[in-house]
Amino acid sequence: MDFALPDELRLLQETVREFVADAVTPRAAERDREAAFPADELRAAATLGLCGLMVPEEFGGNPVGSLGAVLVYEEVAAGSPALSVTLSVHNTLVCGAVATYGRPELQAELLPRLASGEILGAYALTEPGAGSDAAALTTRARRDGDHYVLDGRKIFVTHGDHAGLYIIFAVTDPEARTSRRISAFAVDRDTPGLTVPRREHKLGLRASEIAEVTLTDCRVPATRLLGNEGDGFGIAMALLDGGRIGIGAQAVGIARGAYDLARDTPGSGSNSAARSRTSRRSSGSSPTWPRGSTQLGSSCGGLRPCATKASHTPWLPRRPNSSPRKPPPS
Ligand SMILES: Cc1cc2nc3c(=O)[nH]c(=O)nc-3n(C[C@H](O)[C@H](O)[C@H](O)COP(=O)(O)OP(=O)(O)OC[C@H]3O[C@@H](n4cnc5c(N)ncnc54)[C@H](O)[C@@H]3O)c2cc1C
Hints:
Bound molecules: flavin-adenine dinucleotide
Distance between the termini: 40 Å
Shape: globular
Strand content: 15-25%
Number of helices: 8
Structural class: alpha+beta
Radius of gyration: 22 Å
């Protein structure tokens, strides 16, 4: 298999790298110190088309496929892990959900707004009693005429206080077998009964807030159902398959950004490393590698296989049976 990047993805990678260096990296540390959401940087990213990576062109998107998205997440993470997490959730988990499982009218309504960055999408699966075991969630969605009424509490929702749209997973049939109990809904921020009571205090990745979202008698039109009733767990897992590749790419980007910073910081040992290599060449004797540079050298060696693995994963075939059914035509 040929893993060489096609020209258009190489161009994408270079364009995003330049954008990050100019518009993202300079404020990233300050944003993180102040736990300030990178709103200006997100707007600039949207202008570049980075909020529509999973949105078809007919809805104003800039579809680049899973590999293109992974390249974007890695490049952005090298400058700002927080912005990268936001782009990954918005594109892969939310735009991907609406573009794949939304009814045509819902796609026409939401995708242009998501792609332009007018609204930011969040993904609300986790609950206080449902983390690793996502199927244990208890948020309820009861059918009431042409609406569903949602009640429950979601936690750890990435950019939960900045989102305009939430993909919310809730139990529609408590009696059904585990894989058919849950449904997925696209819920607007301004829906009465949806509140964001608090943000978590974090030690790292501070510019990307995670927030609690509560739902109290929250009436959502039935047209906001993604896929069919009972498809929610399959949808959640299928989206997370893509999300995990994005997380891998972000980890590589963060490591690369840290490595570059250490290498370019005076006194980190990296400049001494260059000097040592020079002195080895000139004197023929073994260099005395400063401690920092030895660690940097071995870190860099470990980074390359990780980067290769993350960027090759989108080529892998999907697991069988991991995708729920597409929605019925409405
Ligand atoms: C920065 C950040 C952003 C996030 N963003 C989102 C988001 O946007 N949307 C969203 O829905 N969620 C989000 N989450 C939540 C995330 O998906 C959960 O944290 C994750 O699913 C783990 O759940 P938990 O934190 O409840 O840990 P737990 O499930 O309680 O796990 C705690 C520990 O126990 C271990 N463990 C769990 N079960 C078992 C078992 N059966 N046997 C042995 N060990 C076990 C786990 O491996 C882990 O080490 C985010 C979390 C973080 C930290």
